[in-house]
């Protein structure tokens, strides 16, 4: 295989990997359109997965990027605690105030200056699987999951086929190298034996 062919194969592999990463951001668990009143989402978990933080970390790594891609205007933050035994929480902030009965104010000026606090929903996600965390988020927000289009499904299928073909090609290439190495070893042994006979 020439250097030019190797470079071409390398470029194709990198392009396929990039295409796969871009597709993974667009589709899959976490691809959700949130309602317009969702202002911010904050995830809090420990630095490591033990102690019930595995689901929270997987949600952050795998689902939060898709959620952000589908909702670029929504602020999404992550806080990682040093204390491993600490809480794991998902806090959703809404622009709309909480629904409650208005309390009478003492004066008109107090009524005009007091602003209602935005609504927030706190979800305890410790020991929860990432899919359960997503379910709780959907329940709290009323978000809509985005299903992959026909084109995206075709892309997924094509990438899987290319990945399988690449795996088979790698196995064949490895087998060829093994055979070549074995032949070289046999040739070395044969040359060594001939040399000894001549001497």
Automatic annotation (TrEMBL):
Stretch list, region Disordered: 95-118, 157-199
Subcellular location: Mitochondrion
GO molecular function: structural constituent of ribosome
Organism: Lepidopterella palustris CBS 459.81
Protein name (record): Ribosomal protein/NADH dehydrogenase domain-containing protein
Signal peptide: none
Domain of life, source organism: Eukaryota
UniProt biased composition (Basic and acidic residues): 157-191
InterPro entries per record: Ribosomal_mL43/mS25/NADH_DH (IPR007741), Ribosomal_mS25/mL61 (IPR040049), Thioredoxin-like_sf (IPR036249)
Lineage of origin: Eukaryota, Fungi, Dikarya, Ascomycota, Pezizomycotina
Biased composition (Low complexity): 95-116
Main location: mitochondrion
Domain Ribosomal protein/NADH dehydrogenase: 48-144
A GO term from the CC aspect: ribosome
Keywords: Mitochondrion, Ribonucleoprotein, Ribosomal protein
């Amino acid at each position: 295989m020439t250097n030019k062919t190797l470079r071409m194969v390398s470029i194709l592999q990198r392009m396929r990997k990039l295409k796969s990463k871009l597709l993974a951001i667009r589709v899959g668990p976490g691809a959700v359109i949130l309602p317009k009143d969702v202002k911010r989402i904050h995830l809090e978990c420990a630095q490591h997965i033990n102690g019930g933080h595995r689901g929270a970390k997987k949600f952050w790594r795998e689902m939060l990027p898709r959620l952000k891609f589908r909702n670029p205007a929504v602020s999404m933050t992550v806080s990682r605690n040093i204390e491993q035994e600490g809480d794991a929480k998902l806090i959703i902030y809404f622009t709309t105030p909480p629904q409650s009965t208005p309390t009478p104010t003492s004066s008109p000026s107090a009524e005009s200056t007091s602003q209602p606090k935005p609504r927030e929903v706190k979800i305890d996600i410790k020991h929860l699987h990432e899919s359960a965390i997503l379910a709780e988020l959907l329940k709290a927000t009323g978000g809509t999951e985005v299903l992959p289009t026909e084109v995206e499904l075709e892309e997924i299928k094509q990438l899987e086929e290319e990945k399988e073909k690449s795996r088979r090609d790698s196995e064949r290439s490895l087998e060829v190298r093994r055979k070549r190495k074995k032949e070289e070893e046999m040739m070395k042994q044969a040359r060594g034996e001939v040399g000894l006979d001549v001497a």
